[in-house]
Amino acid sequence: MQQQLAMGIDLGGTNLKAALVDRDGRIIAKASQPVDVSRGPDAVIDEMVAMVDSLLAGRSCDRSDLVCVGVGSPGPLSIREGRIHHSANLPGWRNVPLRDTLSEKLQRPVVLDNDGNAAAFGEFWVGAGGGCNDLVMLTLGTGVGAGVVLNGALVHGHFENAAELGHLIVEVDGLPCPCGQHGCLEQYSSASAVARRVVTAIEQGQACALAAGFQSGQPVDCVNVVQCAKDGDAVCTKIWDEACMYLAVAVIDIQHAYNPARIVLGGGMSSAGAFLLDRITDHLTRRCWSLHDDLPVITLSELGTDAGVIGAAGLAWRHANDAS
Amino acid sequence: MQQQLAMGIDLGGTNLKAALVDRDGRIIAKASQPVDVSRGPDAVIDEMVAMVDSLLAGRSCDRSDLVCVGVGSPGPLSIREGRIHHSANLPGWRNVPLRDTLSEKLQRPVVLDNDGNAAAFGEFWVGAGGGCNDLVMLTLGTGVGAGVVLNGALVHGHFENAAELGHLIVEVDGLPCPCGQHGCLEQYSSASAVARRVVTAIEQGQACALAAGFQSGQPVDCVNVVQCAKDGDAVCTKIWDEACMYLAVAVIDIQHAYNPARIVLGGGMSSAGAFLLDRITDHLTRRCWSLHDDLPVITLSELGTDAGVIGAAGLAWRHANDAS
After folding, report:
1. What whole-number distance in Å separates Cα of residue B226 and Cα of residue B177?
2. Looking at the domain A128-301, which fold is it?
3. Cβ–Cβ of A158/B76 closer than 8 Å?
4. Is the pLDDT of residue A1 over 50?
5. pLDDT per residue over A110-134, tens digit each?
6. Residue B196, CA atoms < 13 Å, CB-side half-sphere
7. Quick check: ipTM above 0.85?
8. Which residues of A touch B245 (CB under 8 A)?
9. Which of A91, A281, B121, B124 is close enough to B149 for a disulfide, judged by CB 3.0 to 4.6 Å?
10. Which CATH class name applies to B5-115+315-323?
11. Gap from B117 CA to chain A (nearest CA, Å)
12. Which residue of B has its CA nearest to A84?
């Protein structure tokens, strides 16, 4: 009997991931490999094809077992056209018809969506969504990726670029963002931003427990900063607290914009667990409105680094079901 | 032949409005009267019934000509339950089953929604929406009311209180809002806020062209402030410019949250027309991102003070069509 499986692909600036996923959202097989996106779309699409075939072969399947392939990619992109416009994380890629090219090579239907949307859909489908139909996910990693599910469907908007919540302005005239704005959430509340701000403080000569290591060549990362903040280091405590405060401001904006049941936090910064959630809650308690009891539950990702591939496969399943 | 009409009702803290609306969104007859909401829900609902009957009688119609009645009301409220939880603008109203009470008295189906949502739906249906399916409306009046239409439907969210965009935080630790937050949009960018901030400046002894009038008892309103800003008064110019700057910040947050095609501005502050739009555009040009060309068109309300009743009637029509 023919198996029914979907393939989820997560295209990142440094890694290519794929997973074979059944209709209940279980991963049957998965793979991850470094990718050199500077080789251009054609080479990378060929790597996707090889990865798909290899995962299928490992489970004694072939392409005919795939109901559909879902791809999550950095944007901005066009979902309707299946085309990546361009992306800070995919230098040199311009106007790439990824969906149709991959579909032609695989001879299977393909759907394309934003990587933040795919991860949100994964958590909604079989992760931290907990059965609720209205959910927002923030992936606190290199930047802040995001996706929004309302009434059980991703929000795309007219220009198909909705839910870019890393670029909510949380501090007017705040830190500059490469996007051109000032005071974007992702300049304060991503794993990279937290580390970067500690490095800046060290370079400015502020007394910080991570200074000596940094000056002797050890990189500062978000995990170090969290540990130092727990140990009472003043600089790390302040920067971590500000990261949590600005997340609380973003949560309030998200509450008023979408009124979701849940906000799911993923990405590197979320590995701090209760040390993150408790601080956000402290700030929320003091900052959110008292007019109505409609604050979403804030929770951690359940799918972790698999959210993207599972969500992409979930979108593929949904596409296949809608088409049938 | 029986006529097919819907009734739209707009319940405000000071006025009750109603309109008889055909299936194309044209007003057949309308009425507006002061309302004393402190008399309580029963008395006010009886006034609604009398208003409905009077409008029908004036067009030689009766209740059987109504396919449905739509009511826009201040919230927070439950759309599913047709119930007003409570509202700053309806003092003493608690947990009022407005939909079912009105429906029983009229013996017609009734739908209830938030007043900001109703106005947004009106502009989407037959106003400044211009045929687009993804639209946000901001009503810049006493506060900032809002409504969001995505894919042709209002966004309500899990707690049915989405699109409370007057409470987006545009200035961390900014002016206190009666809602309990600090730095809400409506503390800077509503008609009332603009007037209030000028009064505060006068009371602080700042030199302002409106000071003499204010001190001899003339109230300051948004229209005066706009005129004085046009005439070059420094205080009015600064406060008007800040109102427009914070609106630009809110537009950017709305762009990234929903990615709508249009943002429609209504309410008292929007009567400034180009003097409002041009200033917002100036700030947007400097503040919005350059990653993607997805800035919504910003436009003025076309339905003006009729947006609420037309939108409520539109929701009634939609309900009737869905039911049939």
Report:
1. 23
2. Nucleotidyltransferase; domain 5 (3.30.420)
3. no
4. no
5. 999 999 999 999 999 999 998 999 9
6. 14
7. yes
8. 172
9. B124
10. alpha beta
11. 13
12. B292
